[in-house]
């Protein structure tokens, strides 16, 4: 034997789905990234990505850590932590990154995998809590004079043009 191992078995979509969904309750991950890449697990929604980013940011800031310090503590690449925290749309973290961050942030691995889109979520309560968190975590600052003027001008334009050609008033 040459020492090279050839993987011959072909995993079915059903098997990958079962294994990926089971990982939500496990401490180790074997197929989440593979299942995500195969399209078996849907990518994280915009709300889940935003919630994951805000969770990482709030946890980091609550302990007065920089992004670099969190990345070092979790033993993950700084660029990955930055992409997650900012909710970079096309970024899919590796399962290892999510597991390492879960440990550093002291949050359940399975739930973090769900937010990252690496495990299927079947919990409507978590989905509702995620949406509430994202909505409540956004800062609310008054509009500047320039923003207020632009907003009011645009609303006027919408009001004047509403219904033209669409048959809707």
Structural class: mainly alpha
Give the overall silhouette: globular
- Number of distinct helices: 9
State the helicity in percent bands.
55-70%
List SSEs in N-to-C order.
HHHHHHHHH
Main sheet summary: none
Strand content: under 5%
Q: How many beta strands in the DSSP annotation?
A: 0
Which stretches are low in confidence, meaning pLDDT under 50 for 5 or more residues running?
1-10, 27-31
Task: Estimate the mean pLDDT confidence.
Answer: 79
Terminal CA distance? 76 Å
- Rg to the nearest angstrom? 21 Å
From the structure above, extract its key features.
169 residues, mainly alpha, 9 helices
Summarize this entry quickly.
With 169 residues, the protein is an all-alpha fold. The protein has nine helices and no strands. Helix 3 packs across helix 5.
């Amino acid at each position: 034997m040459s020492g090279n191992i050839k993987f011959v078995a072909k995993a079915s979509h059903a098997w990958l789905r079962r294994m990926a969904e089971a990982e939500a309750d496990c401490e180790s991950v074997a197929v989440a990234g593979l299942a995500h890449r195969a399209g078996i697990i849907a990518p994280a929604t915009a709300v889940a990505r935003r919630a994951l980013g805000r969770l990482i940011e709030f946890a980091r800031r609550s302990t007065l850590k920089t992004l670099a310090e969190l990345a070092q503590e979790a033993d993950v690449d700084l660029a990955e932590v930055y992409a997650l925290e900012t909710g970079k749309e096309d970024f899919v973290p590796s399962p290892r990154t999510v597991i390492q961050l879960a440990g550093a942030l002291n949050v359940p691995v399975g739930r973090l995998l769900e937010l990252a889109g690496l495990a299927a979520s079947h919990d409507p309560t978590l989905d509702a809590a995620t949406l509430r968190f994202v909505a409540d975590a956004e800062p609310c600052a008054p509009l500047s004079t320039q923003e207020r003027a632009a907003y009011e001008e645009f609303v006027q334009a919408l009001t004047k043009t509403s219904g033209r050609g669409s048959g809707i008033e």
